Amino acid sequence: MKDKSYIWISLIILIFGIWAVPKIIKKFEKADLEIIGTAPKFELVDHNNKTITNDNYKGKVYLVEFFFANCPTICPIMNANMLKIQDTFYGKLDFGIASITIDPTRDTVEALHTHAEGLGVKNPYWHMMTGDAKYIYDLAKKFNLYTGVNPDAPGGFEHSGLFALIDKEGNIRSRKDEHGNPVVYYDGTSDEGVAWLKEDIKALLEE
């Protein structure tokens, strides 16, 4: 009887090992997303009047966008899509969002607080940030995300609708296109871009 018991126990251990080991290995695998480079460091003030730096996002997967609250063109689309992403990962405390205004004169702490409340920001690590204008524009250049002042543009500013995806180690990450080239940044104005982000954020959270 004892021999049979040992056989059954051995079989159970073997079966569990066959099932569990690939999952354990997968847990420590890197997602198939290109590392573009290290995200630039920053120090800004958020809509709750708290100083926020890269350290606040340490150990988190997060998105970076440049926007402004009075934007009449693509920002409302970007905001709506960011809300969809927030809702998808609601309750995940290792996911965050960094929204940086390019209109700091109007987008004061108080203005961003009102904007965040009206928008429906619930993630405690979604920080809408403001600061010195030159500092912000220099930061956008370091990210290689287009921003600019243009009195002739709607709202007086121009910027891309792209989101940067940052992993838990502070690296900018990107999926590859059908030709094997990294897309680098994700289109925050398109359904496809949002779908890609949901997939890739999930993959990075599991790293």
From TrEMBL:
Residues spanning the membrane: 6-25
Which PROSITE patterns does the annotation name?
Answer: THIOREDOXIN_2 (PS51352)
Please report any disulfide bonds recorded for this protein chain, giving both cysteine positions: 71-75
One GO term in the molecular function aspect is: metal ion binding
Its keywords, alphabetically, are: Copper, Disulfide bond, Membrane, Metal-binding, Transmembrane, Transmembrane helix
Thioredoxin domain spans which residues?
Answer: 33-202
Binding positions (Cu cation): 71, 75, 159
UniProt lists the family membership as follows: Belongs to the SCO1/2 family.
Name recorded for this polypeptide:
Thioredoxin domain-containing protein
